[in-house]
């Protein structure tokens, strides 16, 4: 369910690169769950990531995430499945 | 033990003071996360580090750090770092040795199996070894191959110390055994001096604490089994008689198992805290030196 929520959040605007924290806020998923999901999705080729441009503030650079074409396809599939399944709809709003 | 406890308190106080003065109002979970992420493998811990640094709200940042620490500690073991296999293999062998020695003792000395308390003790012992195995796997995600090599090598030196302590009774043996808690700090100093691995040096101390605890058990119990408990003094014989365990050698082996089991906890907790404290104190102010 958490993976579906992450896919759905990233599929809202697939062309946009997102920070992990914004996905975390939107999905209400714990950072301890979210980053392993990012890692798995990236290893499966469903997610791509890049480092943001170096900042002058001195803090470490952040990762940006975006769905790949297969990832977007998978996200749409998962959203459709959740729409058809009332139980999933309660836990996961597409 | 009092010296050990005082040393732990002193190290914690020094580390807390040092960290507080460096990091201002940063929470403990954030500090722990930054130390772990900077020492971890792969890109995603660094990604979390970057995200953590960008969160402005202190409470959110702390909550993020707690989740991130959980993710780092519970990540699945990866076998992509062959340089760390020797360390994992050494601890696996030492755990197997500990189980074998405990089994041989229980089989060879039926006097140790009187009543039901021994079943609980064996259960706790197996649980303890399970914790050692889990901690070894968790640590395999952190640090460099050199940290692992130094930690394991220094920890293995405990085998010799434990053998001597197990073979000879008396105050010098007790003192020798007590000094084992300093092994992790020794590993940290070696790691710093030899490789200047300051960013991840705490890993050497933590691995050394695990290896030293297991090695002490192996060396100490093996020595007792080999010499059959040594030459009994009237005082020891009287103590064995009071315990109700016969013959004397069974009592001596049981006593050795109890002492070594205590050391499994003592070396890990006290030695581990001293090693980690030394590692954290020697870390540089920034967190990116590991990569």
- Terminal CA distance of chain A: 11 Å
Tell me the span between the first and last alpha carbons of chain B.
Answer: 38 Å
Number of helices of chain B: 12
Q: Determine the most extensive contact between two protein chains.
A: A-B, 21 and 24 residues
Describe the protein:
The complex is a heterodimer of chains A (94) and B (291). With 94 residues, chain A is an alpha+beta fold. Chain A is built from five helices and three strands. By secondary structure, chain B is an all-alpha fold. Chain B has helices at 2-23, 28-39, 44-54, 58-74, 85-108, 117-139, 145-167, 171-178, 183-195, 201-227, 234-243, 248-282. The longest helix of chain B is centred in the last third of the chain and has 35 residues, at 248-282. The relative contact order of chain B is 0.14. Classes of the chains: A alpha+beta (94), B mainly alpha (291). Chains A and B meet through helix 2 and helix 3 of A and helix 3 and helix 4 of B.
Write the layout of secondary structure elements.
The complex is a heterodimer of chains A (94) and B (291).
Chain A: H1 2-11, E1 18-19, H2 20-27, H3 31-43, E2 47-51, E3 63-67, H4 69-84, H5 86-91
Antiparallel strand pairs in A: 1-3, 2-3
Helix pairs in contact in A: 1-2, 1-4
Chain B: H1 2-23, H2 28-39, H3 44-54, H4 58-74, H5 85-108, H6 117-139, H7 145-167, H8 171-178, H9 183-195, H10 201-227, H11 234-243, H12 248-282
Helix pairs in contact in B: 1-12, 2-3, 2-4, 3-4, 5-6, 5-7, 5-10, 6-10, 7-8, 7-9, 7-10, 9-10, 9-12, 10-12
Task: Pick out its properties.
heterodimer; A: 94 residues; alpha+beta; 3-stranded antiparallel beta sheet; 5 helices; globular; disordered C terminus; B: 291 residues; mainly alpha; 12 helices
Task: Summarize the structure in short.
The complex is a heterodimer of chains A (94) and B (291). Chain A has 94 residues and is α+β, with helices and mostly antiparallel strands. Helix content of chain A is 56%, strand content 13%.
């Amino acid at each position: 369910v958490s993976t579906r929520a992450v896919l759905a959040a990233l599929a809202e605007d697939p062309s946009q690169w997102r920070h992990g924290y914004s996905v975390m806020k939107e999905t209400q998923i714990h950072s301890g769950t979210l980053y392993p999901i990012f890692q798995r999705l990236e290893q499966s080729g469903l997610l791509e990531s890049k480092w943001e441009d170096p900042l002058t503030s001195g803090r470490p650079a952040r990762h940006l995430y975006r769905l790949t074409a297969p990832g977007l396809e998978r996200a749409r599939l998962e959203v459709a499945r959740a729409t058809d399944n009332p139980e999933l709809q309660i836990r996961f709003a597409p | 033990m009092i010296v050990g406890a005082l040393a732990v308190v002193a190290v914690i106080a020094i580390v807390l003071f040092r960290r507080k003065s460096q990091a201002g109002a940063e929470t403990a979970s954030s500090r722990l996360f930054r130390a772990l992420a900077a020492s971890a493998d792969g890109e995603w811990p660094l990604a979390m580090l970057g995200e953590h640094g960008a969160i402005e709200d202190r409470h959110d940042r702390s909550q993020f750090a707690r989740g991130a620490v959980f993710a780092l500690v519970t990540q699945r073991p990866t076998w992509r770092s062959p340089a760390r296999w020797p360390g994992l293999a050494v601890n696996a062998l030492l755990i197997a040795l500990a189980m074998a020695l405990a089994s041989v003792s229980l089989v060879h000395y039926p006097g140790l199996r009187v009543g039901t308390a021994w079943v609980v003790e064996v259960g706790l012992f197996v649980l303890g070894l399970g914790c050692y195995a889990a901690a070894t796997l968790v640590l395999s995600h952190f640090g460099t191959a050199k940290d692992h090599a130094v930690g394991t090598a220094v920890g293995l030196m405990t085998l010799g110390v434990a053998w001597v302590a197990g073979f000879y009774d008396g105050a010098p043996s007790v003192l020798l055994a007590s000094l084992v808690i300093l092994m992790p700090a020794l590993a940290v100093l070696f790691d710093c001096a030899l490789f200047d691995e300051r960013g991840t040096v705490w890993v050497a101390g933590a691995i050394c604490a695990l290896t030293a605890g297991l090695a002490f058990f192996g060396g100490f119990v093996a020595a007792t089994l080999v010499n059959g408990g040594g030459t009994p003094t009237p005082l020891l014989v009287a103590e064995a008689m009071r315990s109700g365990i016969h013959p004397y050698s069974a009592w001596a082996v049981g006593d050795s198992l109890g002492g070594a089991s205590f050391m499994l906890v003592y070396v890990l907790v006290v030695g581990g805290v001293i090693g980690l404290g030394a590692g954290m104190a020697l870390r540089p102010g920034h967190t990116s030196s590991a990569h």
